[in-house]
Amino acid sequence: MPPSTSHPPAKPPDSPVDDADSDSDLEIDLEELDPQPVREAERSKTKSLLGKTRDPAEQQTPRIALRTLRMGGLRRGAKRNGYGELGRGHAGGDEDTDSLLRDGGGSNPRYSDASAGGEDEAPLLSEHGRSSSKRRPSLAGGSFRRVGLRLPSFMSGGTADRRGQDDEFGKEEDDPSSSRLVAVGSSQSTRFPPNIISNAKYTAWSFLPVTLYNEFSFFFNMYFLLVALSQVIPALRIGYLSTYVAPLAFVLVITLGKEAYDDIERRRRDNEANSEEYTVLQFDEPGKGARGVRPKKNMRSNHARKGSKRYAPERDRLSDIQEEEEQTEADGPRQRPSWIVSEVSKKSRDLKVGDVLKLSKGHRVPADVIILKCLSNDPAAHKLEQEGPSQEESLLLDHAAEAGESSSVLKSPVEDGAAEGGSNGETFIRTDQLDGETDWKLRLASPLSQNLATEDLVRLRVTGGKPDKKVTEFVGTLELLPSRQDAMSTAAFSQDDGVSKAAPLSIDHTAWANTVIASHATTLAVIVYTGPQTRSALSTSPSRSKTGLLEYEINSLTKILCFLTLALSIVLVALEGFNNTKGNIWYVKIMRFLVLFSTIVPISLRVNLDMGKSVYSWFIQRDPGMPGAVVRTSTIPEDLGRIEYLLSDKTGTLTQNEMEMRKIHVGTVSYANDAMDEVSAYVRQGFHLPPSANNQALATPSTSHSSAANAGATRTRREIGSRVRDVVLALALCHNVTPTTEEDEDGRMVNSYQASSPDEIAIVRWTESVGLRLAYRDRKSIVVESTETGRTVVKVRILDIFPFTSEGKRMGIIVQFYERLQPGVPGIGSGEIWFYQKGADTVMGSIVAANDWLDEETANMAREGLRTLVVGRKRLSAAEYQEFSVKYQEASLTISGRESGMQAVVSRYLEHDLELLGVTGVKDKLQKDVKPSLELLRNAGIKIWMLTGDKVETARCVAVSSKLVARGQYIHTVAKLRRKDAAQENLDLLRSKTDACLLIDGESLSMYLTHYRTEFISVAVLLPAVVACRCSPTQKAEVAKLIKEYTKKRVCCIGDGGNDVSMIQAADVGVGIVGKEGRQASLAADFSITQFHHLTKLLVWHGRNSYKRSAKLAQFVIHRGLIIAVCQTMYSIALKFEPEGLYKDWLMVGYATVYTAAPVLSLVLDKDVDENLANLYPELYKELTSGRSLSYRTFFVWVFVSIYQGCLIQGLSQVLTEVDGPRMVAVSYTVLVLNELLMVAIEITTWHWVMVLSIVGTFLMFVGSIPFLGGYFDLGFLLTVGFYWRVAAIGAMSLIPTYAAKVIQRTMKPPSYRKVQGI
User: Fold this and answer.
1) Which of 383, 300, 1159 is nearest to 749 (CA)?
2) What is the strand order of the sheet 810-817 is part of?
3) Does residue 1176 belong to any structural domain of this protein?
4) CA-to-CA distance for 94 and 143, rounded, in angstroms?
5) Where is Mg(2+) annotated to bind (predicted)?
6) How does residue 887 score in pLDDT terms, banded at 50, 70 and 90?
7) Which among 12, 1164, 1227, 1255 has the fewest CB atoms less than 10 Å away?
């Protein structure tokens, strides 16, 4: 054991520092000083942290416990290239640097305090540590600084050297035009926007102007406004002014009311999200706590709590030493304010920039934050911490004692990324609501803030860039300043004052809004961007008002009717002649005719359609087959029946994001489903350890423990058993999973797993199900136990880890097996060393040894929609590992080409001729009934695109497993496209293969959208399926807009995450899925459902009904207005072209309302087929997309019917009674009303009791109102037989030919729904 070294005590962080070489980067908590006595021989003259030379007699301070060296910026590099590319020692290197690095990796998080690294390593303060920096200043000033290491000042060369580099760094980062300063836990000098989520379309000021503009942008609304205004002029007035103003006002009130209701509902839902409660830390001076706020427990780091109990006897002596050192300063002691930290509850809308949030597992992050501290609250971790201090020291000292084997124990602190995110400043977040990626992301607290007491967080200041929508980039700085006032100021501070410190911030230190904390650790984070300035909001398009395709079609038909009205008015005036006489001016007559014929353009059309939309919405929301469905935009339900392109998200929409291990292949045999029991039997046999003294023996890959169960097995069976045992062991070790313990709903402690990828967790769960449970894991070791006996069967020491990257598509681990359960760490030569690796078959095929089954088996699994991983291993001798370690360490310290150099070393020494162990198949569970739903939608003529932010391989697997891609269909993959000529080649190939599926990544998609926009979309829309992966939210929205612009077809987008909001809002119809991942997509959507398979019912059933009903309703309302206009025309002709009204005042109003409105509106209950037929024959839906239900053809058929019936009714009424008089009006009006009621009955396909009631009730209402119509009718004539036979004759001649023509057409050319009904 090396001798202990004495060290001076720490000073307060804001104390002045005179010595430039003092260790300003180390923060040592006095409570962590070890009370052990120090050897007299080591009490030599040293410099204290305050920079004063002290006598050995004064140096009788206890030695500092060994702790982890926390280096800022190290994690970023380690995450990319392995756990310890900079934390590993190397044989033959500078021994002091080697010692530094070894100690830096020496801490074992199994026994570390939950507050993580509030202390630093003792050896870092030794004399030889300082001397090494003088011998090799280039090491600290060159390689380490280039990669972002925050080293202690004793490794920084000289003061001038360090100052120059810091100034250089400052110049690069200090850009006032693109930065913001955020004082942590304090009020800000700059005003920032409030943290409010808003999906509302209108404000109180914009509602009326915007809605009125939208309403009068429709031609017929503007037309009726002009008609109503014309009645102000006496010469143009016909009847009551209210006859024309009231219908328009009624339409506007109904429409504006519906828009207001929809927007109020959106605001109510936004208010729910904005009212979510969060815990915020409040920093108050003693005696100045916030009034009216109930303070909660003070936030103190765990090591402070524990230290106060453990080291209480040392407090007085240490305080005396500190005071003595402060008194030696020329300017006297500086008082450090002691802030009281309390917890207050704030609503999401009240959060401000600078607030420090306390977040726990499952919390949605309400704004863009920088992570400051991660405090572990895992019960298992606390238990281990309490049990292990003594063992920790022995392990660490054993590590330090291995002089020639240092490289084997050197690791960067990053790898405990799996370690629960607690005491080492690490946490996991889920970003699937932001970017669609299913993997959990490792996030880090900067060592500068992680090692700081919670009450000192107010001394921190964050510098960040301007708000940006790039969710994968962030550059900032974290500064520790002398006081809270300094942090709140905007002045720049130099690190040379010995008190101020700075650390770089990157994307690894952030958590953007709408991500979710996935770790059990408590995370403290400061808000830097709020509300509209968050990444999520900037990636989201603003809400827009949506108008259905049917509205535009009706608008076009209205223009035709208006032209018809104008032409008819001019013709009637022309037939009389354009002669002006007194009181008879020709253009005034034209204007009066326009007012008389205004019923041709039916104002009631909007009322009826809007009321119909409300009925459709009511049906959708109360459909028992779609529980939880919500209609948020009630203006476009008809568009549900016209969808031709469906753009779907993957994660949470098509899949559940729950992985399951489905299949494993070991070369000669494959196991799946029930066959997994056989795997369990092999595992029990393979890891059956014979009883030994204290059960200390452990299994290694080379051990072969035979049991009675397999003693008589055949050789082939033994070989298979050995293979199964090897592949299960490899899967149990080669991962980044950490076991954790958490409370379930019943308060019981249950074991769970935590990792950055759901695939990893699925595999580890599978190994547990077959007999090997991951019991413990930290940066240094993995312990695996038998699920049958609970006994530890495998324990390994982690030597190196090579994490998974999207470029490498593989992850590897080098482990050394323990042969027995023993304290301490085995030497390099005392245990087997193995390299395990797993990865995608595309990269592993060239790494594993030659074989004849890998390609075939991976292809088979891919066809089943499984995500395949190839597993291999290689044994290393101690010498081989030592050689690799030295080369790898050298490569990790190079300045240029570091990543490629490190990968080259791995490839040369490890990644070749691996023994192929097996292939695993993992499946992402699909949402319920996704396969039949996609098939039904395809048969309905809808082309489906899948847009996801996930990886290419994942997207391909889900496309196959969900049957989005048919079995055997060619998938053309376009990835990492950077050259224009290659882009053109791919387009040419796709033109020749229009039956292929296109799989394209975001980078390639961006090139096409930039350079080949039209060419790309012209080819893509012809393909049966397109899968776009690695898509940003803006790319998804751009694709939706491009399809709309190019095809002029209706596009529906469906998603469940915040990253889908832009796409949903850009679509003609946006559908949001309400799931466990949040409500943001459903809040922004037009329709909200709870399951993907509900979409089929929404489109095929409700969409069909809404469109068919509205089309029939619109045409019937046009017919109703046109027929009365034809009657008016016939009357005017009979009066020698005089613009006199036929039906005046109440007769006009009553005809459009009480006498025909209810029966016509009852058509919204009609249905041509039942739901079962609509689902059985989805091809019926394909007919709707052509728009035949409301086309120019059907429109002109109805115009012809209206002209025929109008001429017949008015002409015969005048012929059979009189040209002008109450008798003619009575006959004409009565036939007109009865004609409309019977026409409704003829058009009904499926009767509903409401239809019968409305028709019969309206007829009775008309009969009952006749006695009150004496001002218009000859009531005496109504009591004669002559009235009735005239009404019957005229009505029969009007209706019988119309009905006969319809029957003949249905017989000769029946519609499709009639055909399927007859099957």
Assistant:
1) 383
2) 670-672, 655-665, 915-926, 867-876, 833-839, 810-817, 792-802, 781-786, 772-777
3) yes
4) 14
5) 649, 651, 1056, 1060
6) very high
7) 12
Q: What percent of the chain has pLDDT over 70?
A: 74
Same domain, 476 and 363: yes
Tens-digit pLDDT profile for residues 545-562? 778 888 888 888 888 888
Domain end: 1089, 1122, 1143, which one?
1089
Q: Within this chain, do residues 496 and 555 fall inside the same structural domain, yes or no?
A: no
Among 511, 538, 565, identify where a domain stops: 538
pLDDT at 331: 41
**Residue 212 belongs to some domain of the structure:** no
Question: At 1231, is the pLDDT very low, low, confident or very high (cuts 50, 70, 90)?
Answer: very high
Query: Alpha helix (H) ranges present in 402-548?
Result: 447-450, 484-488, 535-538
Instruction: Examine the pLDDT at 384 and tell me if it is beyond 80.
Output: no
Which of 98, 355, 378, 649 is an active site residue?
649
Res 379 pLDDT > 90? no
- Supply the DSSP symbol for 1292: H
Confidence of residue 1184 (pLDDT cuts 50, 70, 90): confident
Binding-site residue ranges for ATP: 649-651, 760, 804, 838, 867, 948-950, 1030, 1036, 1059-1060
> Exposed, middle or buried: residue 448 (CB in 10 Å: 0-12, 13-18, 19+)?
buried
Given pLDDT bands bounded at 50, 70 and 90, which one contains residue 1106? Answer: very high
CATH number of the domain that residue 444 is part of: 2.70.150.10
Question: Does residue 918 fall inside a structural domain?
Answer: no
Between CA 482 and CA 624 the distance in angstroms is 64
Given pLDDT bands bounded at 50, 70 and 90, which one contains residue 726?
A: very high
Binding site feature residues: 649-651, 760, 804, 838, 867, 948-950, 1030, 1036, 1056, 1059-1060
Longest Cα–Cα distance of the chain, Å, equals 135
Determine the pLDDT at residue 440.
75
By mean pLDDT, which of 112-116, 264-268, 749-753, 1297-1301 is the weakest?
112-116
1060: closest CA among 1069, 1051, 1071? 1071
Q: Please confirm, yes or no, whether 316 is among the known catalytic residues.
A: no
Reduce the DSSP state of residue 531 to 3 states and report it: helix
Token code pair at residue 755: 């990792």
Helix ranges (H only) for 501-651 are: 535-538, 549-576, 586-596, 604-621
Task: Give the count of domains, the chain.
Answer: 4
For residue 1002 the two structure tokens come to 């975001």
